What does this fold into?
Amino acid sequence: MNIIHIVLSNGPVPSKSEVTRAKLIECTVQELLVTGADDFGFTAIARRAGLSTGALYARYENNDELLIDVWNSRAWPAFTSFMSDAFNATKSPADAEATVRVLDAMEKQDPDLVAAIALLVIARRNDTLKEVVFAPVQNFFTSALSTCPSAVHVAAYLVGEILVAKAFTRKTEGWREFTPEFFEVCGNATAQPVPPQEVDSFPNTNPADLDNFDIQLFDALSEVIARIGVERATVSRIARRANVNPATIYARYPSKLSMISRCVDHYLSAVVKGYFALDERVTSPESLIANMVHLFRARNSNKWETVRRFRLESLYAAWHNEELQRVYADAYGRITDHDVQELSKGRNGETVGLLNLSTFNRVILFGHSLFFDYELVSSDDDLILSIETGVFEALMNR
It folds into this structure.
């Protein structure tokens, strides 16, 4: 049921202006999910609403003002309601009805909730939205932490699942069965000192398969996209950042998207060669968990900031781009194949559980990447060891 129906079925008959506003907000939500906040304009929304662009300009000065209205009236209420249910689901005894509402919202990809996540991504690099979005998000989680200490991790996993489902056009296998187990793990998580480790050793982002030109180019590409997103990152701007001629880029890559796709593929391949590979360093459950904790700390360190933001932005761009969807699907397929080979060595019947743990960490990575920019995640988080241990035990005891 959209907002137009809600208004019409409750209380006084709305004015024509209220009905028009509700229609514009509804169509903006739809446009957000189809084209993204970086690539839509008043013309597209007016066409979808069957109105003139003048009807929008009479109410909103620009796109940002319209997005703020969407945030306040639809996205933020949906997000806080969804997350409040999730936090209640971690309590003992768990709120069964709240759990079902969370699962159902994820199952149907509730449009207002998905729009909220899109705006959370965009607000990190849009100063107008940032002024409206950041403080309420930070205050909401500060309040939630008093009753649900693992609130940020709960939110990171759920947001990660939605981000991945939209980018891959399918959800991770077994997510519905796992989510209540994760709520229980988070409800039981206890603070534990994070083992001292060198967090700057990950990832290996300059492997031998790249020449110096691509290393320089991908560094510049990542920095530009991290600041302004995929849609607004022009080849000219990337070339200036890399201190190269745009023609030199086009001689190697026929389009911006082909360059981005190669960069995404490069970073994900580097991950296969790094900690996600779960290679010979993983000799026991304890070493596997330690690896995952190290991974959490490394990817949330300042050294990996640009790569972390690039991966989040490119995943978000894949919501609306089939080529990037294929790049991610192919790269993750290779990672999974590698994990199957490595995790099957010397183990009997444990491979599925270990693969699920690996998948969980990839999913929650994107949520942590988002909330890091909201200053809600830090590399020295004292719940991560307990959560990783609990998730491991839940998956292996199935």
Remarks:
- The chain has 19 helices and no strands.
- The radius of gyration is 22 Å.
